[in-house]
Here is the input.
Amino acid sequence: MFEKLEMAPADPILGLTEAFNNDPNPTKVNLGVGVYKDETGITPIMNSVRRAEGMLLETETTKGYLPIPGAPAYGKVVREFLFGQDSAYPAATAHTPGGTGALRVAGQFLKKINPNATVWVSDPTWPNHNGIFGDAGFTVEKYTYYNAQTRTLDFNGMLASMKTMAAGDIIILHACCHNPSGIDPAVEQWEQIAQVINEKSLLPLMDFAYQGLGRGLDEDAEGLRIIAAAVEEIVVCSSFSKNFGLYKERVGAITLKAGSTETVDKAFSNLKTVIRRLYSNPPAHGGAIVTTIMNDTTLRAEWEDEVAQIRRRIAEMRELFVAILKAKGVERDFSFLTSQYGMFSFSGLNPEQVKTLREKNSIYIVGSGRINVAGMTKANMEPLCAAVAKVL
Ligand code: LMR
Here is the structure.
């Protein structure tokens, strides 16, 4: 059976990491996968995380299974992140293996309860959205989002697309730090989005992987909180990979909010059945780290400071990249980068330029031209900008 198979194409993002790891060039730069690098070019373990891990090592008493949705204390922490500390929505959370795991669970769950819905993703979106919801059996369609000419959100186009959606359709929204464009709706725009969701009876699925990396922990949740306040039922798929630097611990969550506790309980019982059949129950370690940090005042303050440093460094690299390109006489205006948020921006580099940068300079960029600004450092900036200037 296996002999008949053709090679599957490499993943557009993780396949690039494989190629990067195999590249012997000592000056190689990875601006592909959404992983944060510090000023020295490594993905560090946060101090708060190390300290929490030390505490866990001392106090852990068993390796017994967690419940299907994970530890209740973790679920509580997740909902505080999403909805704010004082929120009391009828909602329930399951700890999933990463944000991808949350999306996978969402796909399976939603297909069971609403099999004929269309899933709508932004044009462009994280490529894996298409694969995950396609594999779940949904038709996946695109809604207008990015205007490549103006490098801004095509908001009228987005609303016009939303008006063509059918009742019960699922709209995937990037809650902040849109992946891949770095362009988020403004507060008033989120309000209008919420209104159209209600008018058209859509189900919003918020993908929230970059909280704290854009404008701030609460600021980055603004869009999600506007939707949650205005719309009765929502699904949130969130991740702590980036803001806690816990990538390999696979620590994510799926949260359902509904109109009443009774409805949430019913929906959540179905979600648990889905999880049981997919992976039974989640891995404990990453969730325990997050819970330990958030429930300890000192660790929490230290962690908040560490996220703020990440946010500042990303903003600084955006400024520096634009300034150095300008200093090199590049005429194309890259200043749009400084008004975008999170790890990603569309550089505007075409596939040919992306290929040349990789082959000549070992600079790895996703084929769409998406760059991970968090892979830039003061040390690699000069050669990076020189190489980019050359291909333009
Ligand atoms: C990315 O978009 O680079 C990240 O979300 C990592 C991934 O899994 O693709």
About this structure: The mean pLDDT is 96. The CA atoms of residues 187 and 222 lie 7 Å apart. The chain has 13 helices and 13 strands. The pocket of (2S)-2-hydroxybutanedioic acid is lined by residues 13, 33-34, 126, 179 (CB under 6 Å).
